[in-house]
Fold this sequence. Notes:
alpha/beta
Amino acid sequence: MALLRKINHILLMMLVLIVCLLLHSKLFRGPSRPKLKRTETRKDPERAPKVPVEKAAEGGDDIPVVICAAEERMGGAMATINSIYSNTDASVFFYIVTLRDAIKLTRQYIEKTKLKGIKYKILEFNPMVLKGKVKPDSSRPDLLHPLNFVRFYLPLLDISHQRVIYLDDDVIVQGDIKDLYHTKLEKGHAAAFATDCDLPSTHEMVRSVGMQTTYMGFLDYRKQEVRDLGINPSDCSFNPGVFVADIGEWKKQKITKQLENWMQENLKKNIYSSAMAGGVATPPMLIVFHDKYTIIDPLWHVRHLGWSPDARYPETFLQGAHLLHWNGRFKPWDYPCVHLDLWEKWFIPDPTGKFLLVRPEGKI
């Protein structure tokens, strides 16, 4: 009997000891191992993991860039992205806007090339938003592509940033994109553009190809609606292919609604045309932003490289430019075109083989 009591006592002591050890483990356990945060800014895209970054969350310290990627111009958009990403230490977030049919190609172009390390989100643009606002024009049908009007609808895109850079897909960035992003917008201005009267060094080339640099070249001043605007026809125009936008101010001033109103006005009264203005996306911007925009450093928008297959800038001047824009008919992925070497160094071949360069010896 005494032995049984002794055994029970030992078992009871062991039970108490086990309970104490469990309580100690719960109360004094060390901190759990933190989860590793995925690195969002990678400066070596070649070594980036093959993980889709499309779902990456936009960060407050990112430089947000909006760029359109049409299927037939996909290589241009990717060259632009590559030039931006390769020339900055800043964390850049790309909002890549495209149509439904090109979403798969856009994703493949990024994930199967050196761009797989970028932070991005693919946004689908619904062309139905343009119904009843744009009429067909046979002179330049390419200028009526729905993505040409994405710049009008920036606040309607799934964008979390309050300030963004918008870039056309025929540009190459040679400078640090954060310098453009930090352009100080004047009070009450929703955007910053480069005026067409800015760089004296570009004037000779512009005159040689017959480029217009004033409102006279974009609006039909024979129409009463245009004269009623009170805009001097000799006022300097600007190119809306590169700009910095304040989304909050854009919403406050109802810029999108104003642009739509002028699109509908042109639909009824033809106050501008693609033949006159080189496109129907520029004139509404010129009207709405007249005398209401901040001027950016002209070296951040050296343009007209695609206006002529013969007129060239001095190479030394282009080397010092922060951004080059092949606006016009002669694109760097086609032939003929000037200053191809400055564009080709950023071109990434399409991994699917759909986008091909046009060169004298054929398509490559």
